[in-house]
Request: fold
Amino acid sequence: MIDPQTDHFIICGYGRAGRHAARDLGLAGMPCVVIDADPPGGDRAAAPGRFVEAHPADDDVLAGAGIARARAVIACMDSDADNIFVVLTARGLRPDVLIVARASSEDAERKLKRVGADCVVSPEETSGSEIARVALHPPLAGATARAAEIEVRPR
Reply:
């Protein structure tokens, strides 16, 4: 069981996306509970807050992680099907909780929204947009000198 935290984030999945979400929330001082049945490399020590080694789509696991008092559930497992099950379970346990989910395809994005995700993020779409943004407006550190050599203009 998890200590009776309130207003915390439950991160389901501790792969690349889950690690980044946990890191950024931890840096922002937000309390987190990370749930993963098989974390890559077994690296639980780096997770901010509590770590639960179990399957996140299990009702008892989400209840034990404090979904009744959580601010949000983040479903960022590597499998779209697993994320769909997490969203279904979380929405069934707590109809009013904010649910953010990761999708690797447009079809999965539609299904995640259909089963109750409030917001769906596609890493491919997000990274593609970020790449275009940086190419159009290079950050000041490092790329400014190179950007001065390149004139960016629409065709």
The first strand starts at residue 9 and ends at 12. Residues 9-121 form a domain with the Rossmann fold fold (CATH 3.40.50.720).
